[in-house]
Amino acid sequence: MANTKEEFKQLIEDVQSQDWYRNPIGFGIARIDRGQLDSSKVLQATFPIINWNENFGSAAVLLNALKIAGENVDTKGTELVCNISDVFLEECVKAFSPYISEAKGEDHKNVQVISTLASLPIDSGFTADDYKAVFIFEDENAQSVETSYLKLYALSTGKAAIRSLNLNGIFGQLHNVAWTGSTPIELDWLRANEIALKLSGKYPTIDMVDKFPRFLSHVIPADNTRILETSKVRMGAQLAAGTTVMPGAAYINFNAGTEGSVMVEGRISSSAVVGAGSDVGGGASILGVLSGTDGVPVSIGENTLLGANSCTGTAIGDACILDAGVTILPGTKITLSEKAVAAIAEANPEKEIKTLMRGMDFLGVNGVHFRQNSVNGQIIAMRSTREIKLNADLH
Amino acid sequence: MANTKEEFKQLIEDVQSQDWYRNPIGFGIARIDRGQLDSSKVLQATFPIINWNENFGSAAVLLNALKIAGENVDTKGTELVCNISDVFLEECVKAFSPYISEAKGEDHKNVQVISTLASLPIDSGFTADDYKAVFIFEDENAQSVETSYLKLYALSTGKAAIRSLNLNGIFGQLHNVAWTGSTPIELDWLRANEIALKLSGKYPTIDMVDKFPRFLSHVIPADNTRILETSKVRMGAQLAAGTTVMPGAAYINFNAGTEGSVMVEGRISSSAVVGAGSDVGGGASILGVLSGTDGVPVSIGENTLLGANSCTGTAIGDACILDAGVTILPGTKITLSEKAVAAIAEANPEKEIKTLMRGMDFLGVNGVHFRQNSVNGQIIAMRSTREIKLNADLH
Amino acid sequence: MANTKEEFKQLIEDVQSQDWYRNPIGFGIARIDRGQLDSSKVLQATFPIINWNENFGSAAVLLNALKIAGENVDTKGTELVCNISDVFLEECVKAFSPYISEAKGEDHKNVQVISTLASLPIDSGFTADDYKAVFIFEDENAQSVETSYLKLYALSTGKAAIRSLNLNGIFGQLHNVAWTGSTPIELDWLRANEIALKLSGKYPTIDMVDKFPRFLSHVIPADNTRILETSKVRMGAQLAAGTTVMPGAAYINFNAGTEGSVMVEGRISSSAVVGAGSDVGGGASILGVLSGTDGVPVSIGENTLLGANSCTGTAIGDACILDAGVTILPGTKITLSEKAVAAIAEANPEKEIKTLMRGMDFLGVNGVHFRQNSVNGQIIAMRSTREIKLNADLH
C-alpha cells in the first residue's frame, strides 16, 4: 500500500529493481469482445488509454499487482496478456491511492482506468473475464489479438511513427468477422442463427466484414481533423491534426497516413506517408509496396499537390504538383527541357537533374511539376510554381 | 385572435404595416441539438419545413407572436434567432386558428409545425429551450449555426439555386463534431468520457467527424431520386429529381449538384453544377474553384457524358463527351482537325472554333467529343455523335 | 402425414406425379417488409434459405401444403407467390416429421425454416401475413418483388451464375425506398411524418435511398471474404470466396462480381465478371454494357492486374497487366512492336496478333501488358511478365 506519493515512488523502485521486472514498450488494459460461439476467441480489444514508451511507474504497478494476484507474469517473452481479477484491482487501487483523488480530466489516465474498473456497476454485464492487461516487451511479431490491437493503437494515436513498428503476423492474429456498428460478430454465429434471425426480423445490420476495425471506433481525432465517413480510415492509420478525409474515393489503410494538415480525397495505401500541407486530390492513388511501386514505401513531401485521378508509385518531394490524370511509376520516362533542368537543379543543388529521368530518380527532388504535354502525349517535368519551404527544424 | 380567414388576412396586414416589421428572405422553426458539455453550443438545427421568399403571412404571425412573447425582435439585422415559449405558441395558435383544421398533408405546413409543437407530449424529453425561430433578412454572412443551416436547407430543398447564396462564414459557424447516426456529439465530451464509455461497452459508433451533416439526415429526396450511400451527399448539395448517386467514387459537396436527372458516379465539387440528362462517370472529377480550375465555377451542360476517371477543370457544354481517362484543365491545349473545326462551328455558329484551342475556350461550346489520340497521345476534339437538344424554355 | 423417410419419399412421388405439379427453378419462404402507409406494397423480401434447381422434395411438400391450405396453386405461370397459414405450416410439419429431429446446422435447412416458423413466439410481432412462399417456374421477367429478390439471392449466394438469369423487369418491380439499416421505409411515409418526427427528435437515420438492398443485409460471405464497407456491394452481386472489397472507390453492382479470390479496389459494373487471382486496382473502372463498351459485357481473365485508375471497356484476358491510368476502350488503337507481336503470338497461338490492333481485338488474348509510352503518348501492348496459367479444368 502506498499512502503517499513518496511511498508510491519507493514502491515503483522496489518493483523495478526486482529480477523478474522489465519495462514494457507499450501497455494498457483492454476490454475484449469474445466470439459468440467460441468464447475463447478474442474478436476485438478496446483500450481506453494506451502507454507507449512512457508511464513506467504505472506499468510496474500493474505487473506487480498481477504477480500478487497469482498471474503468471512472464516478462521474458516478447509480450504478455493477463487476466485481471478483484485482487489485481485491489492491489492497483492500493498502489495508486495517492493519485486517485487527482485522477481526472487529462491527469493520471491509467489511474482513472483502474478506478473506473473497480467501480463498474454489478449490472454492467461485464466480468473480470472481459478485461485483459496487455504488455509488449519487444517489437516482434504479435502473438495475440490484444497486442495486435495495442500496436494499431500506438500507430493511430500517433504514439508510434508510421512504418516504425513490426506489424508482421497481425493479419494472422485478427479474425475476419462481421461488424454491426463497432461490435464484431462471428460469421459462424450468423450462419448458425440465420434462419431464426431472419424470420424473426432480428438479423443485424452488417456494416462491414473485415479483420480490422475502423479508426473512429477506437480513436478520437483532433478538434480540427475531419473524417467524413468512418469506413474511409482503417484502424492503424495515423492522421495528423488538421487532416480532412473526404467521402468520395478516399481511403487510408493501416500503417499509413499524414504528417500534418492534409486534404485527403484519394487513396493512401499501407506504408505510404503524406507530408504537411499537401493535397491528395479526388481519386488520386498513392500506391502501396505490393502494387506498382518498386518495393520502396512511397513518401509524398510537404506542400505538394497530387491532382485528381493522378497516380504515383514513387516518392514525390516537397512543393511538387502532379497534374490531374497523370501517372508516375518508378520506371516512367520523364522528359525535361534544358530550361526545366536548370530551374529544378537550382532548387535542388545536391541532385543530378537530366533531360531524361525515370520516376524513381525524383526521390528527394523538390519543386517539380509533372505534366503530360497534351499536344504530343509526352510526360514532362518542369519547375513548379510552388515555393519550397525551408524546414525550420533542418535549417 | 383570428377567428376567420378574413381576420387572419387583416392581422397579417396590420403586422406587416408596422414600422418594426420586415419580410424575411427565409424562415422556419428548428429543433436544435446542444453540446453535451457546453449546452450553449448549438451543434445542429433541424427544420421540419423551411420558407424561402414565400409564406410571408406565416412570417408575420411568427414575428408578431415573438414580440408579444417578449422576445427582442430586431429585424434591422441581417438575421434573427429567437427562443420560443408557451406564450409564443399560444399566440401563433390563436392567429392560425382558421387554418388549423385544414392543416394536414401538404397544406399549411407552418401551421402544422405550430400545432405539433403545441401538442408535444410532456415526456418527449424536449423543452421550449430546444427550439428556435430562425429568420434571415439579408443574404449576408451567416452569424449563427441556425441561419447557416437555414441556408443549407434552402439549397438542399431546391428553394434557392446552387451558387445563389452567400455561404461565407458557414465554416466558421459550424462546429466540428462526431456524429453517431444523425446525432452530433462534442469531441470533448467523447474525450471526457472515453474511459468510462469504453470500459462499459457504451462507446458510441461514430459514423463521421465533420462540421456539416449529411443531406439524407435532413432532406427527403424525390421519389425517383436515389442516393445509394448517405455519406456521398453533404447537406447543402442540391439534387434534382431523377438524380442517382452511386456508392463507388461519387461525392456531391455542398453548394453543388444537379439540375435534372443525372447519373452521378464521380465527384461534383463545391460550386459545380451538372445539367439534366448528363452522366458523371465512375471516378470522374469535376474540380472545384480551389483545385485546378482557373477560379471559375465549373458547369457541365445537358446530355453530356463525362467518362470514367475523366477530369474537368473547366466548363463543358451540352451534348459533349469526355472520353474515359481524359483530363481537360483550363490551360490544356486541344487540337482540332479542319473537319472537326467545321463540324463544331456548324453546331455553334456564335463561337470561334480553331485548330488549336485551350480547355477554357470551350465555354458554351456544345456537341464536342474530347479524346486522347491513342497513337500519338494528342488531346483532340471532334464533333460528338450526340444531338444538341434545343432547350424548350429558350427556343 | 409421413411417419418415416420411406413414407416421405412416397409422398413426394405422389405429389410430383400429379397433373398440377411442376418443379420450380427456385423457391423459398420469405419474410416480407410492407409499406408503412400502403401495406399492400412489399418493400423487401428476406429469405433465410433459397433453393435453386435443388431440393425438389421440399418444393413438393410446400406446394402440396399450400394446395391443402386452400391457396390457388397455379403452377402454369412463370412464378407463384402464396400466403402462408397455420394449415400450411401444419401440413409441412406433418410431411417433414421424419427429418425434424435431425434438421440442425447445415442439414435440412428448409425443414428448419418450417420448424422455426411454426414455433415463433406469439409476441414476435409478426403474423402469417408477413411471410410468403415464393416459387419461380420459368426464368421470365419477374412479376413480383418476392421473385425479384429470389433471383437476386440466386446470384448473390452463387447458386446461379452471373449473367445467367433474366433480370428484366426487376427495376420495375422494386420500390425506391429509404433504408435505415436494413429496414426499408416508404418515402411518402417519411413525408407524411416529417414534421412530427423531426420536432420530436425521432427522424430516422437514413443510410441510403435505393430500390435494391445491400448484399450484406441478406448474404453471409465466406470466411475469407472481406467487404470493408457494406454500401460497396449491391444485392445481386456475386463474390467468390477470398474476394476482398476495399472502401475507397470500389463498387460491385448487381449481376456482376468475381469468380475467385480477387482484390477489388475499383468498380465492377453490372454484367462485368473478374476471374480468379486478378486485382482491380484503386479506382479502376470496368465499364458496364451501357457506358463506353460496345454492348458486350466485359470479362476480365484470371491473374490479371488492372492498375490504379485504369479503365477498360472491353474484355481483357488472363495474366494481363493494364498499367495505372491507362484506358482501353473497344475502339482504342493499340500499337505493337514486331517483338511484341511475336511474343504475344507465341503465347496465343490461335489468335491473330498484328502491329496495330483495336481494344476489342484483344478478346481472349492472354499475357498482354497495356501501357502508355510516356515519351510519345502512344498506347502500346507488349508481352506481360505474368505467366499464363493453364486452366486445369480445360487442359
Q: What's the number of helices of chain A?
A: 8
Question: Can you give the helix content of chain A as a percent range?
Answer: 10-25%
Radius of gyration of chain A: 25 Å
- CATH H-tier superfamily of the largest domain in chain A: Hexapeptide repeat proteins
Structural class computed from helices and strand pairing of chain A? alpha/beta
Architecture (CATH level 2) name of the largest domain in chain A? 3 Solenoid
Q: Looking across the biggest beta sheet of chain A, what order are the strands in?
A: 9-10-13-16-19-21-25-26
CATH class of the largest domain in chain A: Mainly Beta
Number of strands of chain A: 26
The greatest interface between two protein chains, and residues involved on each side, is: A-B, 55 and 54 residues
Write down the oligomeric state. homotrimer
Shape of chain A: globular
How far the N terminus sits from the C terminus of chain A, by CA atoms, comes to 52 Å
Low-confidence stretches of chain A: none
Major sheet of chain A: size, sense and barrel closure?
A: 8 strands, mixed
Name the beta content range of chain A.
15-25%
How is the CATH topology of the largest domain in chain A named?
A: UDP N-Acetylglucosamine Acyltransferase, domain 1
- Counted up, domains of chain A total 2
